[in-house]
Amino acid sequence: MNFTMRLFLSSFTILLLHITYIEARGTQHVTCGSVLKLMNVDYNVRLHSHEVKYGSGSGQQSVTGTNAKEDGNSYWLVKAESGKQCIRGKPIKCGDIIRLEHIATKKNLHSHLVSSPLTGKQEVSAYGDHKGEGDTGDNWMLICQNDFWERDDTIMLKHIDTDKYLAVTGRTYGTPISGQTEVVGEYSASSPHTQWSVMEGLFIHPNDFKAQHYQHTEL
To answer: Is residue 181 left, alpha or beta, with left meaning phi > 0 and alpha meaning psi from -120 to 50?
Structure first.
């Protein structure tokens, strides 16, 4: 597939997700292969990325929070931890280790022992190659209250390599991402602003599980 076709398909996917909220009838679970937006409960900003690199720290692609509901750069694909696959349509269990791949740039939600730009907490970035592969710094543990990740759950994401929790600080950036909020790794689950909820998305129906398992469709 040539570059033009890949670009067209990527743009079409983003546009489709941008304008459409797909209701997954018959399931209340987030499943492998779901594409969704996560909103920070306290600050009401959606987890976001874009092709803008940090000007300090790692210099990797920046991850922020945005209050723009319709921004297509806030969609993330739910997939298995680094080096593993999950079956499309299979519900994600609380306690599972997952990755979140940024739809528009194919980079994974990532963290590491680097200071964040505004508050000096732990930097959260987007990292990986054009195939959506990075390293173990892309792995996050899903923390929730039930057996499986339900779509109306409030969740936390714990970074496996560093034991930090995905959070928002409330500090905002200037140009070129003016008004967007700093996203960081926090030291404790009891730290403020570590809770997230699922918003808009495309959710894979679990009734498709057997067929997709038969076809060995994996992420």
So the answer is: beta
